[in-house]
Specification:
By secondary structure, the chain is mainly α. It is built from 10 helices and 3 strands; from the N terminus they run ααααααββααααβ.
Length: 213
């Protein structure tokens, strides 16, 4: 799929919806209300979570690559000058200065977990050190280190993906999945794109975004 179509049709939002729904299936047996801290969630490991972590990480990777190729081609040009074959997470880190939402960087965003009231900052200091959840994603994907597929890494990585769909929003898809807090009379207008959506809260079944749409 061409990079511009990926964002235009809201495929990134579709993928987040499916991933969150799959996590919710797991949480029916391991509720967040009980696993209400990073320490508790780190003790919850499962092959199911390993598969989910790979899927979340892969979609974040796709999102970043398509974002760079669509809007920040200078980052890819720098990669070509250095004669590297592919974009890496170090390239993605350069987006923190470029990919702003009303003056807010990814690294400055705290996402609220509805069930526990906790706040996650999945991109905290990511320009200095690679997030644990991203390292674990690669370990699970390439080395089958299933022990790193814990519930906390899932929460952190899915929170990261949620933040990305908020920063690069597709209003129609956000309304379709009931993530956008808009008045009922405006829903059809936004879905048909006859009315431009402005600033609203973005809330899923698990997360509340720190940035409005």
């Amino acid at each position: 799929m061409p990079s511009d179509e990926y964002f235009e049709i809201g495929y990134h939002t579709d993928r987040f919806f499916e991933l969150e729904e799959d996590l919710i299936k797991f949480l029916r047996f391991m509720p967040l209300e009980i696993h209400n801290s990073s320490e508790k969630r780190e003790r919850v490991r499962s092959p199911y979570l390993a598969d989910l972590l790979i899927r979340i990480g892969s979609n974040i990777d796709i999102f970043f690559r398509k974002l760079i190729l669509s809007y920040y081609i200078d980052i890819d040009n720098e990669r070509k000058i250095q004669k590297r074959n592919y974009l890496s997470f170090n390239d993605y880190k350069k987006l923190d200065e470029k990919f702003l939402k009303r003056g807010t960087k990814l690294s400055g965003c705290n996402i609220k977990i509805i069930q526990t009231g906790e706040y996650l900052n999945p991109f905290k200091n990511w320009n200095i050190e690679t997030p644990t959840w991203w390292t674990s994603y690669n370990h699970v994907k390439h080395e089958a280190l299933i022990e790193e597929a814990n519930l906390d890494n899932i929460m952190q990585s899915l929170a990261a993906f949620f933040l990305l769909i908020c920063f690069k929003k597709n209003s129609a898809k956000l309304v379709q999945y009931n993530y956008l807090c808009v008045l009922p009379q405006f829903r059809n207008e936004i879905l048909s794109e006859s009315k431009e959506e402005l600033i609203h809260d973005i809330i899923t079944k698990i997360f509340i975004s720190p940035v409005k749409s």
